């Protein structure tokens, strides 16, 4: 393969933390990228809102422009790193309709308007690349789309949000409280001033929708993702988890369910803090790192680990996509596009079957355990383990590990426990994932 | 994308552990594969040496044939799972020259005759797929070739041989001796009756050559891979490693070296048992699992983990390649082929710079440490830590952790230590990798 027999025009929309790094790498490593892409990649311009704003990298002033439209119409490849829905969506559609291949790291856009973009690209024979949208620098799109194309994914469990993993990991290592670690993470720049998107699981839910769409060949709308954040996790819950051999992780779970009665398949996509065995590979994912654990029918268990965020790390994934797009331009042919042929129905969270850990504050008197056990049994929830700790003042804690139960049964049973005279308070209900 | 508008003829060469599974999955999941590939994949025949030999899967008798040549000439995609150099090489070249895309899991063939196959494919516009050859079921080829195409790989450290990882892990967990664990692994089928290819590092060296070629865009011949096996590792060495916070793993290391004087780059590819910090993600790779740890300039640290071998696991990687080959047939265009544009020189192992742990049996008398320290210092090797343990009978063990030193200096120095009057025996010299 020889370089320089072709030149491709690359337009960049956005010059924030990731965009600046992408521009800098495109300019610094031009020769090497040309060798790999089979064409010289000419960065023809960078659209920004304000050409005078401070940037993370030192970019040539003459590349900056506020006129995105003009850039887009003349480009072979358009890289969108603005984030947000608009004007990203309009500009990407404009680029696609002008015949460009597009590269984006915009998970919010893909999770809400992905099908629209993919359809537009299909119509004109363009392609949408989005490796950086699912798990930052971790290569997960190509493994799911290509390497596992001959296999069937059973389940994905992803630690796909670095901020929440950092917080939970610090709480686990130091016995610290959520609010204290969050404040420190904000001071260090690991968490935003408004941490809602991370700690309430919105960011993870967007990534879960993207991963599930790809893994199950089904368009998964963002509002089909069940979502719970980590704000209710306290150090007591982490300590209780530890005593039972678990660590608490915010997981994005994408699972293929099979109805035992008729064999009909559906998929469940959910984000919540869950108990993971300390022996599980996901338990050793520390700090702000991410990992995607994939269970496939033939391949078995796979894990993809790395930095989930960061400007230069994410830029690596974006540039990989740019090289792929360039190769496709050179080689001709059409890409594989989005694959939604399976089109599986989405199951409500109530259909999920897993194990649970229920922690109850109960009256410390004889007969209470029998009453609690009876309520669980009536609800179809079978007990695997019970630990009782007396806290004084006539109050005890019961930590109950259940066998596998359906979420709906479990949830109804917990309601009945909460209403029982002997239960003072339902301290926590956590799912166990990964076993 | 609609299926069934095209049919592709798929020929399979070999029906051993992997081949049987590939055939079974092609037949069982035909509809799903057709949806993903954009074409119906017709398995037109399976070439075997003996149609009556027992198989792992129940394959339709009428597909089996001993006439590989006839199968090959009419196929769109040829899957080679025979292993060995011949007749695999001749038949793959025959398939390529007949215009077929080929899929192979044959690491021995790729590591020795890869360039020949890639050149033949380039000439006719065909493509060679080999995801299963590098790390079994773990998707590593596409991440290296595509996802990291815009990045620069600094170093790869791979646990790419399941048998040796199983043996070393058992020795570490149980304090067992090599020979005992090997015998048990053979009884369980984790190790071959003749374990040479695994325990002497030949299998890992083949995979290292394939990974390094891909990561550094350079053709790496197998004989440029420095190779040491694990047969000299005993439980004393594992215990010494443990006390210093390490675990011993057989690593395939592919590293970009930069000459500090002139900035000239070269690459080092080596396989040997090395000390890995117990905090490193590779330390938690247990049993027969494999993992490939990649350090890239922009993406940072990535790890890819999964089953390195096994019939059905490897079949997953093969089928992913088959779907990719089919998509390329449908979409037209040419593939990316092998990329050797960087063509970096290969550095001898003497140029490698790393830390070492040297264990010496010395006379237990005053002044010995000063003599040993003097010899190290004269050799340009700087000491980081020393631990001395007295073993009785006038003999002590010195466990010396060095700072980073060049292998050649280290090796010359160890020769001088071995010749010294105060050193009874050089017990072991192990490199420290991953820090």
Describe the structure.
With 435 residues, chain A is an alpha/beta fold. Chain A has helices spanning 17-28, 30-37, 68-73, 88-97, 107-124, 131-135, 141-147, 162-174, 178-188, 196-199, 202-216, 235-243, 311-331, 368-378, 407-419, and strands spanning 7-13, 40-47, 64-65, 77-80, 101-104, 128-129, 153-159, 226-227, 246-258, 265-277, 289-296, 300-307, 353-363, 383-392, 395-402, 405-406, 423-433. In chain A, the strands form two sheets. In chain A, strands 7, 8, 9, 10, 11, 12, 13, 14, 15, 16 and 17 form an eleven-stranded mixed sheet that branches. A six-stranded parallel sheet of chain A has the order 3-2-1-4-5-6, with helices on both faces. Chains A and B meet through helix 2, helix 7, strand 12 and helix 13 of A and helix 2, helix 7, strand 12 and helix 13 of B.
**CATH-defined topology of the largest domain in chain A:** Dihydrodipicolinate Reductase, domain 2
Q: State the secondary-structure class of chain A.
A: alpha/beta
| Broad shape of chain A | elongated
Q: What's the helix count of chain A? A: 15
CATH class category of the largest domain in chain A: Alpha Beta
Could you report the average pLDDT of chain A, rounded to the nearest whole number? 92
The CATH architecture of the largest domain in chain A? 2-Layer Sandwich
What gap, in angstroms, lies between the N and C termini of chain A?
47 Å
Return Rg of chain A in Å: 24 Å
Quaternary structure type: homodimer
């Amino acid at each position: 393969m020889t370089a320089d027999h072709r030149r491709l025009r690359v337009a960049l929309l956005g010059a924030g933390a990731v965009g600046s790094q992408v521009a800098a790498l495109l300019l610094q490593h031009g020769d090497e990228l040309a060798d790999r892409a089979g064409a010289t990649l000419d960065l023809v311009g960078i659209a920004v809102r304000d050409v005078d704003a401070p940037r993370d990298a030192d970019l040539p002033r003459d590349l900056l422009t506020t006129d995105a439209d003009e850039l887009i119409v003349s480009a072979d490849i358009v890289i969108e790193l603005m984030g947000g829905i608009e004007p990203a969506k309009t500009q990407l559609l404009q680029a696609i309709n002008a015949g460009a291949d597009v590269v984006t790291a915009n998970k919010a856009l893909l999770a809400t308007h992905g099908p629209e973009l993919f359809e537009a690209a299909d119509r004109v024979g363009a392609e949408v690349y989005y490796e950086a949208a699912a798990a930052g620098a971790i290569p997960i799109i190509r493994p799911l789309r290509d390497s596992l194309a001959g296999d069937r994914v059973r389940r994905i469990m992803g630690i796909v949000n670095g901020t929440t993993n950092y917080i939970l990991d610090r709480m686990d290592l130091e016995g610290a409280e959520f609010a204290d670690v969050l404040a420190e993470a904000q001071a260090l720049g690991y968490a935003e001033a408004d941490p809602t998107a991370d700690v309430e699981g919105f960011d993870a839910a967007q990534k879960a929708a993207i991963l599930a769409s790809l893994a199950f060949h089904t368009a998964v709308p963002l509002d089909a993702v069940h979502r719970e954040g980590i704000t209710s996790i306290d150090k007591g819950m982490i300590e209780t988890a530890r005593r039972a051999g678990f660590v608490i992780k915010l997981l994005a779970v994408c699972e293929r369910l099979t109805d035992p009665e008729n064999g009909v398949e559906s998929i469940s996509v959910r984000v919540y803090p869950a108990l993971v065995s300390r022996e599980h590979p996901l338990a050793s994912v520390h700090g702000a790192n991410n990992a995607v654990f994939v269970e496939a029918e033939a391949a078995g268990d796979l894990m993809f680990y790395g930095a989930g965020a960061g400007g230069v790390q994410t830029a690596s994934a974006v540039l990989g996509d740019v090289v792929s797009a360039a190769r496709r331009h050179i080689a001709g042919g059409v890409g594989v596009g989005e694959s939604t042929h399976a089109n599986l129905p989405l199951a409500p969270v109530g259909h999920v079957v897993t194990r649970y850990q229920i922690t109850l504050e109960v009256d410390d008197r004889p007969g209470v355990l029998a009453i609690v056990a009876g309520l669980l049994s009536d609800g179809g929830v079978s007990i695997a383990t019970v630990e009782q700790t007396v806290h004084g003042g006539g109050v005890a804690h019961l930590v109950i590990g259940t066998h596998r139960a359906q979420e709906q049964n479990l949830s109804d049973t917990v309601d009945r426990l909460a209403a029982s005279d002997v239960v003072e308070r339902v301290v926590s209900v956590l799912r166990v994932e990964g076993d």
